[in-house]
Amino acid sequence: MRRNEDGVTAVEFAFIAPVFLMMVFGVIEFSMVSFASTVMESATSITSRTGKTGYTDTGVTRQQMIINTITSRTAGLLDPRKIGISTEVYSTFSNVGQPEPCIRPTTPPCPGTPGTNFVDVNGNGQWDSDMGSAGLGNQGDVVVYTVTYPWPIITPLISSIIGNTYIITARTVVRNEPFGTAVGG
Fold it and tell me: 146 is in which domain, residue-wise?
């Protein structure tokens, strides 16, 4: 009975198959996330190029034009209802991600009164750790486009490590071109 090797291959396969299949599914899932990330990077880049010109289709706002461009460039891979788009406007590239300047105290955080304790760059009446303001900006402004998407993780091993959702983020920074108030076409 000890020398009988019938079924050994089936037993070995039973031990190896779950690990092998988990690795294959993990590679497939990682590839899908990478592909979705690449698609989002491309869509964000193209969208920012459209946004910096100030161009809009007739009857569509700039904000809706940005949303439409992102949605069309993701080619049905991403659920448009879950795509998050945010924009921050700055006066110069050097201001991107910087806190509003403090007057008194001289180091952040700077609670108190605008003009007395801090320079209220974005005009919201409070000190902020980032001086950007929401919007698409005017000609010459620097705009940071950030697009996010919650990618659902379906492979159990990967989801136990990073969670059930992986947030894919694409970001582009551009300076708006000179454009007039009458944009459209």
Answer: 8-96+132-175
Instruction: Decide if 14 is inside a domain.
Output: yes
From 159, 146, 172, 147, select the one nearest 30 (Cα to Cα). 159
- For each of the chain's 185 residues, which pLDDT tens digit applies? 567 777 888 888 899 998 898 889 889 999 999 999 999 999 999 888 888 888 888 888 888 888 888 888 887 788 888 989 999 999 999 999 898 888 877 777 887 888 888 888 888 888 888 889 888 888 899 999 999 999 999 888 788 888 899 999 999 999 999 876 544 44
Residues 110, 125: Cα–Cα separation, whole Å: 12
User: Is residue 52 within 8 Å of residue 177, measured between CB atoms?
Assistant: yes
Q: Which bin fits 59, alpha (ψ -120 to 50), beta or left (φ > 0)?
A: left
